[in-house]
Automatic annotation (TrEMBL):
Pfam families hit by this protein: Epimerase
Top-level taxon of origin: Bacteria
Cofactors: NAD(+)
Name by which UniProt lists this protein: Nucleoside-diphosphate-sugar epimerase
Keyword Lyase: yes
Taxonomic classification: Bacteria, Bacillati, Bacillota, Negativicutes, Selenomonadales
Every NAD-dependent epimerase/dehydratase domain range: 33-278
Record's keyword terms, sorted: Decarboxylase, Lyase, Membrane, NAD, Transmembrane, Transmembrane helix
Native species: Pectinatus haikarae
Bilayer-crossing regions: 33-53
Amino acid sequence: MNKYFMGSAIIERDMQDIYQRNIDWSNFNNQTVLITGATGMLASYIVYFFIYLNEIHNANIDILALVRNQAKCHQRFGSYAAKKYFQILNDDFTEPIKIKRKVDFIIHAASLASPQYYKLTPIEVAEPNAIGTYYLLQFAQKQQVRGFLFFSTGDIYGYIPSSNSITEDTAGSMDPLDLHSCYGESKRMGETWCATFASERKVPSHIVRIGHTYGPTMDIENDPRVFAAFMKCIYYGKDIIMLSNGTAKRSFCYIADAIAGFLLVLLEGEVGAAYNVCNSREFLSISELAELMVRLRPELNLKVIQKQRIDSESYLENKNNKANKLTEEKLMTLGWECHYDSYMGFCSVLKYLQGV
């Protein structure tokens, strides 16, 4: 049996790093937390952390994991999914919630975030963000929850003609008839629900606008986003194929930093407000990211090869902003800080994939 938490030295180190932040984790003691999309890349790390609080720090948190695929849930969380404090739910949250248990916190992370879905299943992309958020907020009101956290996105900023940095007050345009907008527009509606329920019905809702985030739980086999696609090449020892000119720039945030930010906003953020969660210090072009990746395994002498994306592919690239630089200054007012640069973060991902 592997001695490390979740069978990985990387996961255990990340859990310890999150725990050691200046956040009062006792707020979750003896509470029930509902997490939608619990097997997703980001949400699963939150579940890992609540399991860690239970197993290592006796927090006595009841975890309600709302998922579409029970088998994937058991695979993701292993024997912990059979613990008394862990309950797997299959409720459809795009209709009124039927959960009978008392819930103290809700983290709404269920979403089809990858652009590979925007062209093929745009309705299914929009539903959990707009309709699902509405019903979960109704449920949160009835439950009188202590906190509700909505996973939004930097995509909500839309097209911004010229901006060196994007703060929470920035407002750009978005074409509602563009299929790519099925994600950003529905997230905007979700945010509006959070703000209106906070104002009119006093639901303590909080919003995190998530920038490009990566970590050990990303699906390198099926996720076509650049950070996952590039990591797949590095893991299998292949040259990176870059399907663009590589000039677009994004901020890349390691998952342990992001999770600490999400939970800090849930516990201490302003009600009805949004916070960017990103790492603007790691503002890299796609070319720079690719070159960083090949340096992770210098002994292989891997190359970066540029090719043109085929128009018929299902992946819908976000062409709104070529330099989408979110800033995290507002989050930093809560005491948040980044611990990982991109090289450290992607090294961690590779080590995890290699079984460390």
